[in-house]
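Example 9 (inverse folding). The structure is encoded as follows.
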């Protein structure tokens, strides 16, 4: 059996951990086993499942607190446990895990880029631009979640060379098939009327996801239609700020901030329109999940067009403003895509197929 060390950073309900866990759940674990490095010493919502599936979870010093201790811990984890394959999902920050993995003797060091960047993210953008040329230096295998993410990290020339493999953010499509019964049950539990228009969003509360604009859009929707609600799933450093903004706008009774949830696949059923106003993305796994549920989807034009897999998906410019977004959303048909599963499978996002491909690739290292 091959053991692979997956480095995923902070566990907070984000897309990266969702992607890796989807592959972990569906890969043949008699041939490949994943172990995980996560930031922070507190138990996460993934620990029990990982251990039940046969994996080990290593908790390390968050890189933001002490990068040198973080790197030292990575070195000892790789060296002391004789990991030959290290798969880093930390984007530009992978430099700080793959360098110690190289020093510790790991022969196969995988850089997997899941994101891009924008200039308006302040110091975070500056650091990404500084680290980007160095991130691949200690890798010898290169992955990306989309061509956009690959072009951003590695450059178009390297992408064209065939050295970079695109790994789709695949999901278990059966878990996302729409259910009217689940819809009724969840709306009842959330105290949302059966006939209400429900806007949905799933994402970590951080600059990238643009929650402030989402609240502005919903405010405009709420002004135009009283029977409307917003479901927001996720957690993060900006959550309290966004909740305060919603309260200041008088929207607290119309928004359900649900935090981290293990039943996200069921919650999609309670929604009518899924909105993703991100400033940037690689290829968001939530966009795949929402489309697999058949939802009408509205993404910002900063989200890669590669994520638009069904005719139920539209892209709007953030420059149009919240009022224009609200008017467009209210005019949309909320009829679900009845062929969602077939569309997603044909596009290459069936985890059963994609996990087998990833397994075959890993097996070439043995």
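The amino acid assigned to each position is listed next.
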């Amino acid at each position: 059996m091959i053991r692979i060390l997956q480095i995923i950073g902070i566990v907070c309900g984000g897309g990266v951990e969702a992607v890796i866990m989807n592959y972990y759940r569906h890969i043949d674990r008699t041939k490949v086993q994943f172990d995980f490095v996560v930031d922070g010493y507190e138990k996460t919502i993934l620990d029990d499942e990982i251990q039940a599936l046969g994996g080990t979870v290593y908790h390390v010093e968050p890189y933001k607190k002490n990068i040198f201790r973080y790197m030292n811990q990575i070195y000892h984890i790789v060296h002391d446990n004789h990991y030959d394959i290290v798969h880093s999902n930390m984007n530009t920050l992978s430099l700080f895990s793959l360098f110690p993995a190289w020093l510790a003797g790991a022969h196969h060091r995988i850089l997997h880029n899941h994101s891009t960047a924008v200039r308006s993210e302040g110091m975070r953008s500056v650091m990404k631009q500084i680290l980007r040329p160095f991130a691949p230096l200690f890798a010898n295998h290169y992955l990306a979640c989309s061509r956009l993410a690959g072009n951003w990290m590695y450059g178009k020339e390297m992408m064209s060379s065939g050295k970079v493999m695109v790994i789709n953010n695949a999901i278990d499509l059966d878990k996302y098939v729409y259910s009217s019964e689940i819809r009724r049950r969840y709306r009842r539990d959330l105290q949302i009327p059966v006939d209400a228009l429900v806007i949905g969003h799933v994402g970590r509360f951080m600059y990238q996801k643009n929650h402030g604009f989402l609240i502005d859009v919903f405010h405009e929707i709420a002004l135009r239609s009283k029977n409307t609600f917003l479901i927001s799933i996720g957690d993060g450093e900006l959550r309290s700020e966004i909740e305060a903004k919603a309260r200041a706008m008088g929207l607290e009774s119309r928004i359900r901030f649900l935090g981290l949830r293990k039943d996200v696949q069921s919650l999609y059923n309670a929604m009518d329109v899924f909105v993703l106003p991100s400033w940037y993305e690689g290829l968001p796994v939530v966009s795949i999940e929402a489309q697999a549920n058949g939802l009408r989807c509205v993404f910002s034009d900063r989200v890669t067009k590669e994520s638009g897999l069904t005719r139920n998906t539209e892209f709007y410019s953030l420059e149009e403003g919240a009022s224009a977004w609200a008017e467009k959303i209210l005019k949309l048909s909320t009829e679900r895509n009845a062929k969602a599963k077939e569309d997603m499978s044909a596009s290459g996002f069936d985890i059963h197929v994609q996990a087998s491909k990833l397994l075959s690739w890993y097996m070439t290292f043995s």
